[in-house]
Amino acid sequence: MPGTNGALRQFTRRTALTALGAGIVGATAASWPRLTGTDIPGRGDNSLSIAIMGTAADAAARQKVIDAFAKVHPEIKVKVQAIQAVDWKDFFTKILTMVAAGTPPDVVYVATEGAQLFAEKLAHPLDEYLRRDADHMKEYFEDVHPSLVEAFMYKGSLFQLPIDWNAANMYYNTASLRQAGLERPADDWTHMDFRSTLAAMKKAKPQDFTPYYWTNRLFGGVVPWLYANETSFLKETKSTGGEWLWDGFYANDPSRSLRSGGYQWLEPNADDPRVFESFDYLRGLVKDGLGVRPEEGGGGALIGLFASNRIGTTPAGGYWVQGLHEAGMTENDFDVQFFPKWRTQRHQFGTAGYAIMKTAKDKDAAWEWVKFSSSKEAMQIVFPTPNTTPARRSMVNEKLYAGTGPRNWKVFYETLDKFPTTGPIPAPPQQAAVETALMKNVSLAVSGDERQLKQALESMQRDLELALRRQP
Length: 472
Fold this sequence. Notes:
Elements: H1 13-16, H2 24-28, E1 48-53, H3 56-61, H4 63-72, E2 78-83, H5 88-100, E3 107-111, H6 112-121, H7 127-132, H8 134-142, H9 146-150, E4 153-154, E5 157-158, E6 164-167, E7 169-173, H10 174-179, H11 191-204, E8 210-212, H12 223-228, E9 234-238, H13 243-249, E10 263-268, H14 273-287, H15 302-307, E11 311-316, H16 321-326, E12 334-337, E13 348-356, H17 363-373, H18 376-382, E14 389-390, H19 398-401, H20 411-418, E15 423-424, H21 431-446, H22 450-469
Parallel strand pairs: 1-2, 1-3, 8-11, 13-15
Antiparallel strand pairs: 3-13, 4-5, 6-13, 6-14, 7-11, 7-12, 9-10
């Protein structure tokens, strides 16, 4: 995983995306110990307990932020607990276990995958605090794209402030591109242009080379292709409400009319003809040897394979930059471009931020931590290297990528600016069951003939119907 060899390893979205990196969480995951009140840092001494996914080293790396926070709020004691987990689903399960045991943390760092689960069951809305501290928070919202904020809206309330995020852009190996006699793809390249690029790469290097590597998961798997084809495996709608936030902080934003009270994914959509079309496109890539079956190969080796010119392209976000740099790639060895266009060029993204638990013993103190963590001072401490994409636009700059690349780093934030309908990972409160239903059927869908694809999507539709009926 990007950044695992850095001096200061930070918890970011990249920690969750172990299929695209060397995964410190997955690699060091330990058995979950028996939970008692003494397992929670700060339990019994009135400290504010903050739970993140990661290792003890990740918790220690937060100390600089805690020290900076203490200068502003010496009256609030903070302790960070890193919970080792294989992925977000595992992390959320462990938080739920802590809640059931009566030892929940006060604040939890939550990614898009769990945002609605927490909003529905566990988290306290931030609305009252944002209204009260609107003058102070104005600067934050002016620096953060509304698409990221909307991802944390749920039924008209905001439950988290985005701290970091990543879109599924397309990385490419510049040596592989040159060997195929190709130039940098155009910003508006299409899915057919992409296929032609893969074919040229394969022709130039037919042995021991994978033109397109993708994974079977919610981020960077089939979903970006579904979004580009103006569809998804779940029907996407939006809640009403949220005017208090949009009119208060984004009244003059050109995309104001697009904003809502939050995303909803209430019904399956695997039987949509465009879903079939998208899977059939990927099936063709696999059939013609232009892309791997998504379950093939481990994510842990991906950076090394890419750095050794054995992989041509793969979807990933800014979280991958530091890892490629540490693998020996220079800014001239790799680059990034927008995801290819189909019916639209809508992208997929995931974001993360702190959620205040309903059970927090001091919600006012918890809010002060959340508010401080969204400040530029705190975020510059947490993100000294490009191992993720900061939510603040002003931090995604030439200084952050100096010495690492990619040359076209502006693609990261321009994904939101140029494609304002770009949307979050489809993650309803039943996200764990929904992701399982998706992943179960993807490999079958892209590994056979059209009949097998049709059967796989019918199975996915049934599995999703059952998953959405489950109580989160």
